[in-house]
Design goal:
The chain is globular and about 60 Å long. The protein is of the alpha+beta class. The protein is about 25% helix and about 35% strand. About 20% of the residues have low confidence. The strands form two sheets. Strands 1-9-8-3-4-5 form a six-stranded mixed beta sheet. The chain has a three-stranded antiparallel beta sheet with strand order 2-7-6, with no helix packed on it. The longest helix is centred in the N-terminal third of the chain and has 19 residues. Helix 1 packs antiparallel against helix 3.
Length: about 160
């Protein structure tokens, strides 16, 4: 079987796109708020959808990368910067900002880890006047076939066919 360089490039690109979709986790959600108001930023993760996880660690980071809250479930440990709080319930850890300041606007990162698995979720805090956009399925928790999943499957079929040629 002999392939042209362009065929190999297309095949590698297809496989890269499929692998990127299959490996990537997390999602993005947008929450609107006005300065001075309290706000809750949700972080839902799939680890406890069907069964509890005994060892779990969550870190919330500000748009500038500053650690705002750290929660460790199995140690009953919680440490937050003043003005911020974290609330845990299975499959969700919510960051509460008691009074939103200008430094709070932007993408907050919720990093959730358990043994042998780690995911980052992004929650963008935007001013009330900014246009509203939200990722499908409430910010990336994928459930059921979506158009992106169907497209990924189609790409996988095309790539597999190309590899067999």
């Amino acid at each position: 079987m002999r392939t042209r360089p362009l065929d190999r490039s297309v095949t590698v690109l297809c496989l890269g796109l499929v692998l990127t979709h299959l490996v990537s986790k997390g999602g993005t959600m947008r929450v609107l708020c006005r300065p001075g108001q309290p706000v809750a930023l949700p972080c839902s993760y799939p680890y406890e959808d069907h069964a509890g996880v005994s060892q779990l660690s969550v870190q919330w980071r500000s748009p500038r990368g500053r650690l705002l809250c750290h929660y460790i479930k199995h140690r009953a440990y919680q440490n937050c910067t003043p003005g911020y709080a974290v609330a845990y319930r299975p499959a969700s850890v919510t960051l509460t900002i008691q009074s939103v300041g200008t430094q709070d606007f932007g993408s907050h990162i919720c990093s959730v880890s358990k043994p042998h698995e780690f995911s980052d979720f992004s929650v963008e805090l935007a001013r009330m006047s900014d246009p509203v956009t939200m990722a499908p399925n409430g910010g990336g928790n994928r459930s059921g076939p979506t158009w992106i999943n169907l497209l990924t499957c189609l790409l996988l079929v095309v790539c597999m066919k190309r590899l067999r040629e």
